[in-house]
Amino acid sequence: MDESKNTTLNNNDNNWSVEYKNWEIDGREENKQLKDELKNSSLEIDKLKTQLEEISEKYKQSEESLLTLRAEKDYGNNPLKEFKDNLDKILAENETLKDEVSKSSKNSDDYETIRDENNELKKSLETLSQKYDQLSSRIKYDELEQNLAQSSTNNEMKDSKDSELRHLQIKNEEYSREISDLNNLLQKMEKEKYRLIEKNIELKKEASQYQSALEIILQH
User: Fold this and answer.
1) Can you give the three-state secondary structure of the chain, one letter per residue?
2) In the chain, what is the greatest distance between 2 CA atoms, to the nearest angstrom?
3) Does Coiled coil appear among the keywords (predicted)?
4) How many CB atoms lie under 10 A from the CB of residue 71?
5) Do the beta carbons of residue 20 and residue 214 sit within 8 Å?
6) Is residue 27 a contact partner of residue 189, using CB atoms and an 8 Å limit?
7) In terms of residue numbers, what domain contains 197?
8) Residue 108: its pLDDT value, please?
9) Spatial separation of the C-alpha atoms in residues 182 and 178, rounded to whole Å
10) Which residues contact 73 (CB under 8 A, 6 or more apart)?
11) Domain total in the chain
């Protein structure tokens, strides 16, 4: 009877030993697989972080270019300012001559001299007036021509700037979406990493429990 009982116990021990060894082998394989998955997950997360940094840098550069282009939208000064200054100068000289004529009329006692001076001043005024009219006509023509050319150039520049602005805005939107997608994927990979770590801990606990149970059985 005792011999039969011992035989049964020995058989049970052998079965437990075989089962534990099989479980241990399976556990090692699964643990190795989990470690490999965890390692690959960490590498993938590092890769995603690097891509995220590169895209963030491109996004920053794109924002800086966009701000620069916006600052350059207001351009150009009045190219005819010099002509207008010259006209103002001529008008001022005319006023000065008129003042001199008036002063000469009041202060001079020699009527003939005053008359001659007045005649000369009138001739000078007429000459200046003709020059003024010629210059004014030429300036108006040049101003019109330059305005037309400048308007055409400004329109082309504005269209080019607006097109570039739209292109940069589209790029910025694409970068924003890509950054958002990468962040979501990164969070998903982080969760998967923690899940693998927790599963690894559970397997170790389960292995420890089997080890303790086997030791208790072997002691009997």
Assistant:
1) CHHHHHHHHHHHHHHHHHHHHHHHHHHHHHHHHHHHHHHHHHHHHHHHHHHHHHHHHHHHHHHHHHHHHHHCCCCCCCCCHHHHHHHHHHHHHHHHHHHHHHHHHHHCCCHHHHHHHHHHHHHHHHHHHHHHHHHHHHHHHHHHHHHHHHHHHHHHHHHHHHHHHHHHHHHHHHHHHHHHHHHHHHHHHHHHHHHHHHHHHHHHHHHHHHHHHHHHHHHC
2) 168
3) yes
4) 9
5) yes
6) no
7) 2-219
8) 46
9) 6
10) 158, 161
11) 1
Token reading at 39: 């390692």
Residue 99 in tokens: 């003042």
Please report the pLDDT score of residue 175 as a whole number. 74
* Rounded Cα distance, 21 and 34, in Å: 19
Amino acid of residue 2: D
Give the number of other CB atoms < 10 A from CB of residue 121: 15
What are the per-10-residue average pLDDT scores of the chain (220 residues)?
Answer: 52 58 67 71 71 70 66 48 62 64 51 60 66 66 68 67 75 77 78 79 73 66
Residue 111, token pair as written in the block: 């009527």
Rounded Cα distance between 16 and 213, Å, is: 10
